[in-house]
Amino acid sequence: MSSRRNRGPGGFTLVELLVAMLVAVIVVGAALALLRGQQRAFFASAQDRAEQETGRLALGDMLQNLRLAGYGLDPTMAFDFGQATTVMDRAPTGPGVPAVVFGGDAAGVTGFACAAPVQCRDSVNGPDELAFQYRSPYFNRPLVAVPDLDTLVIQGPLNQPLFDGQVLQVACLQGAMTWAYVQVGGFVPASPVLGVVRIPLRGGQGLDFPRQNQALGDACFLANAQVMKVERFRYFIDTYQEDGQRVPWATPGARPYLMLDRGLRDQAGNAVTEVVAPDIEDLQVGYVFPLSLPGTQLVGEESGVQLANNTGDGKGIELAPPGGIPTYQTARLSAIRSSHHPANVRAVRVAVLVRGPTPDAQQTDPTLPAVGNRPALAGEPLYRRSAFQTSVAIPNMESRAPIFPSLGTGADQLNVGGG
Questions:
Q1: Which of 38, 44, 41, 36 is nearest to 356 (CA)?
Q2: More confident residue, 17 or 2
Q3: pTM of the model as a whole
């Protein structure tokens, strides 16, 4: 009879349990690390997509409007760098080329408010502003009467309302074919009928843009004349807290927005501004003067050098160049075309700095990367940031003659919609 060793109940030894637990901890840890990595990658990818979409939205809106800058206007009035004496070929003031005051003054009477010419649109310590305008290709109504210099009567219909502050171009289509600019002085509701529409005007005198009311007394406007809209744009950056309170740029905890001011006021008299895109932290603008001397053809891009109203240094904007101000009649290759006067701008470079919509704990660097002529600055940490830049040609600045509305009859009628 053989002997047999007694065996205990089946199971794992302590060493085996410890080894199994160690392996499980390693596997779970690896799985958690993989999960966290995937979450970070997904979060980063979502942030990247949001930044790209925001950048496309912001640049798309600006470039769509910027391409029309100067359409139907004297070239000197396409870009607003602050108040300056300029020329307007079509001002109805008698012989010679009249002097016209154009561009924003400190109070914003003659354009978008500007405390210091040129420098009000450019900064090396914060965002730039981009201010320009063009005549709308979609609004053109016959002028019926000028009862007084503070009222226009146009032929309806008026498919969209007119707001206080809207600039109108009144063009005479006979004789000297002159035009003048006035400004709507109150809310004018839409009128879908074919009757006449009365438009109150803000009082104005002389040749201050945009209220040249006195010019309406010219006999040219009492016969064949048309009224058109001038669309104005000022893009800028505003920063708001969660409660809607506006705060200075780069205030920690606040959110930046790309904003648009069209120079209009609502029925209550409040300035109307529009949100173009959220999380646009900076806007930087450069201007291209292709006929300037080599090395001076692009301004607003040299790091730390703020644009200024200066003459001949090749680094600023010349509101009063010594050689004279370009007009429609200036030869294409004239020396006057080589100055940095706004009428010689042929392209604009626009850059935006977009930050992620939500904080990212992995982003500890608070630096705002250099964009345009703004050097790198300290900003708010915990945000991913991307810079986007593009350039757009301004074809209307090449115009060699004033653009008057195309008029016809029946099916051939063009550019005569009521808004």
A1: 44
A2: 17
A3: 0.87
